[in-house]
User: Which sequence fits this backbone?
């Protein structure tokens, strides 16, 4: 599900640097073990495997935290602890800090990814290969290996060192149409605010490429391949491969129909428009803050305005679905939806304290110190020493009374602070909308806004193949309104005795512990909510059609290889979950994945992301690199690496088809695959020269394509590129 969230005018960056999704802001952190530069949302170092413990990217954050500790304490209830991270990380894509800072080209590539993976379905293809050699893109058909050079000067010389970093983004930016047109970037400049877009006919490689335009931030090609709709310097254009036509200016975001004849766009003034090409635009609404979902034919659009969720169907008046909506989880094509409302309550801390010392303190007066005797006031030493002994007793009593009085003064100060101090308690309410009315599922949703941020490379490859457990606070099914969530057990807050307190902070801890310390899991099928009885259940996966749930329970770290647990399977029928049944035991935590055709894969005895590979409870292979596992949808085929050698940066590439394992090649550095199921791999790779030999594996045979190849450009299935997605 696409979500475009509008920034405020003061927050909005310059048009050429607008980033439509917050996950796309590339920042880097340092690994505390090997000092490698990592993306700021990485949970593990991809070089040494070190777990990253909430490393802050702001160099001044430590000082700011010190200065703002009181402010953070006052909002303690708003920041529940983050959940424990998986023992095995989700794959990330490393992009060096230097690469990110090379002009605007990487911003443009990221923008392209954001737009392309959230747009519409173009032509389905993928029976070709792209790779980079001598800093240029090469193309070959996989049916007839005849490589030829696509680009003429892909990157400037000073950017050549970053060719590996940008290869994935170039793959997403490249589009192929059914009639054989390939659209691609060329002559990339580090100082440009976008990319130069060209196209050429792959059936006529000797013809010169045709330039569409320069400094294009992102673009979409229609199904027939004769219309290119794109954004350049905040201006929306459409090109018919001969001439370009301006559609609108000051545009932040757009979506276009399959045929390229209808476009929806949002401008800088937060006004949302619908326009048929060649006709007048139609205003949908103003003050639009966030676009939630647009269906494939652009007839229905869901968006937020003034905190309310609206639906606008073409040719009909808009409908307000719900007001005071904090966050929308998912909108389904059926019109059903899950969303969250938010409420902040100010609690008076004085109401949670029992003043058990009030009567005593009300009568207590400040003690007066006794006068010390002088020897000159007495006639004998015996009388003086008797007076001195009495004085010592009186002074000791005075010190005790003074200590009690100081404690009383401290309590008075605490009373004064408590009478003025409040605590903000945040409540999140989960709702289901059935197309006509909203139903509250819980008023105590566990929600801290934390979400696994899958890097684009892993997400694009995997989301069309595996069910991605993208949320920590909740998990939803793709095609049917099923959601698993946690709700807090808010026990009654016991009043604390004032005599046992020393600070306001202690009171906040007590209240926070009562309100936020415990929770339980629930599953909702449409509006029907059922508790999940297993107390330690976690890491939920729901199949796309909402018929089966898998999850971990009985987590243990007794195994030397790392944490593992029991995996349970829970079926859903008649809109109700059935009793969970044990699926398998000793499964490595974090390794559970579910394919979109409901195959269950996982590892056992995993260490350093390697372990025994299982498919549907059957062991397939040993020493499998978990992050290398890919599934060819609709072919019952898994591709993966074993015996990975970090020193040589290579391993053995294998394929498992219909349960039968076949070795493809040794000394494989990297591999990619096309949507049609053809495997490309790079072997005999030289770390010194940064290139190797490129092979293609088809019909159970390997054939060499080229040598001295730097990197394989992934071929992203255009059907997946353009479908709505939650990423």
Assistant:
């Amino acid at each position: 599900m696409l979500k475009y969230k509008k920034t405020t005018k003061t927050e909005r960056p310059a048009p050429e640097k607008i980033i439509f999704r917050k996950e796309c802001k590339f920042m880097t952190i340092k690994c505390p073990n090997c000092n490698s530069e990592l993306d700021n949302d990485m949970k593990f170092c991809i070089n040494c495997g070190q777990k990253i413990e909430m490393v802050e990217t702001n160099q001044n954050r430590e000082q700011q935290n010190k200065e703002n500790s009181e402010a953070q304490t006052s909002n303690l209830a708003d920041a529940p602890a983050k959940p424990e991270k998986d023992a095995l990380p989700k794959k990330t894509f490393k992009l060096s800090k230097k690469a990110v800072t090379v002009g605007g080209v990487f911003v443009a590539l990221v923008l392209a990814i954001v737009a392309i993976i959230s747009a519409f379905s173009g032509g389905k293809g993928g029976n070709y290969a792209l790779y980079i050699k001598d800093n240029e893109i090469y193309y070959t058909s996989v049916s007839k290996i005849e490589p030829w050079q696509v680009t003429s000067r892909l990157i400037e010389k000073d950017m050549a060192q970053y060719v590996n970093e940008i290869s994935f983004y170039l793959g997403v930016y490249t589009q192929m149409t059914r009639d054989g047109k390939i659209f691609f970037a060329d002559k990339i400049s580090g100082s440009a605010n976008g990319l130069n877009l060209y196209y050429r006919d792959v059936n006529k490689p000797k013809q010169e490429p045709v330039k569409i335009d320069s400094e294009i931030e992102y673009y979409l090609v229609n199904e027939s391949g004769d219309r290119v709709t794109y954004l350049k310097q905040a201006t929306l254009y459409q090109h018919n491969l001969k001439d370009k036509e301006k559609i609108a200016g000051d545009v932040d975001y757009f979506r276009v129909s399959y045929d390229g004849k209808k476009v929806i766009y949002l401008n800088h003034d937060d006004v949302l428009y619908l326009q048929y090409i060649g006709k007048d635009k139609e205003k949908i609404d103003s003050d639009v803050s966030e676009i939630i979902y647009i269906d494939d034919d652009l007839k229905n659009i869901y968006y937020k305005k003034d905190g309310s969720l609206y639906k606008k169907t073409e040719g009909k008046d808009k409908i307000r679905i719900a007001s005071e909506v904090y966050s929308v989880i998912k909108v389904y094509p059926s019109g059903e939806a899950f969303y969250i409302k938010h409420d902040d309550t100010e609690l008076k801390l004085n109401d949670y304290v029992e003043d058990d010392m009030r009567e005593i303190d009300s009568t207590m007066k400040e003690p007066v110190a006794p006068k010390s005797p002088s020897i000159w006031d007495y006639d004998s030493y015996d009388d003086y020493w008797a007076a001195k002994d009495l004085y010592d007793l009186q002074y000791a009593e005075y010190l005790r009374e003074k200590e009690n009085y100081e404690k009383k003064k401290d309590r008075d100060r605490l009373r004064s602070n408590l009478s003025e101090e409040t605590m903000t308690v945040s409540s999140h309410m989960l709702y289901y909308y059935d197309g006509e009315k909203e139903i509250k599922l819980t008023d105590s949703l566990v929600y801290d806004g934390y979400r696994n941020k899958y890097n684009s490379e892993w997400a694009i490859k995997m989301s069309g193949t595996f069910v991605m457990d993208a949320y920590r606070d909740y998990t939803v099914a793709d095609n049917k309104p099923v959601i698993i969530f946690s709700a807090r057990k808010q026990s009654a807050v016991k009043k604390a005795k004032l005599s046992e307190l020393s600070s306001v902070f202690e009171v906040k801890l007590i209240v926070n512990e009562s309100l936020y310390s415990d929770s339980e899991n629930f599953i909702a099928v449409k509006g029907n909510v059922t508790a999940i009885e297993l107390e330690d259940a976690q890491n939920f996966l729901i199949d796309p059609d909402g018929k089966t749930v898998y999850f971990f329970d009985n987590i243990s770290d007794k195994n030397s290889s790392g944490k593992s647990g029991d995996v349970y399977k829970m079926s859903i029928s008649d809109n109700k979950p059935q009793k969970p049944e044990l699926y398998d035991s000793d499964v490595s935590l974090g390794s559970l994945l579910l394919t979109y055709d409901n195959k269950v894969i996982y590892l056992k005895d995993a260490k350093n992301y390697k372990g025994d590979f299982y498919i549907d409870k059957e062991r397939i292979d040993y020493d499998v690199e978990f992050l290398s596992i890919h599934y060819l949808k609709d072919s019952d085929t898994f591709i993966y690496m074993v015996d990975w050698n970090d020193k040589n940066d290579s391993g053995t590439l294998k394929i498992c088809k219909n349960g039968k394992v076949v070795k493809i090649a040794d000394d494989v550095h990297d591999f990619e695959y096309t949507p049609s199921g053809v495997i490309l791999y790079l072997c005999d790779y030289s770390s010194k020269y940064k290139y190797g030999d490129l092979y293609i594996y088809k019909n159970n045979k390997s054939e060499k394509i080229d040598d001295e190849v730097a990197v394989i450009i992934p071929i992203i299935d255009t059907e997946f590129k353009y479908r709505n997605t939650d990423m």
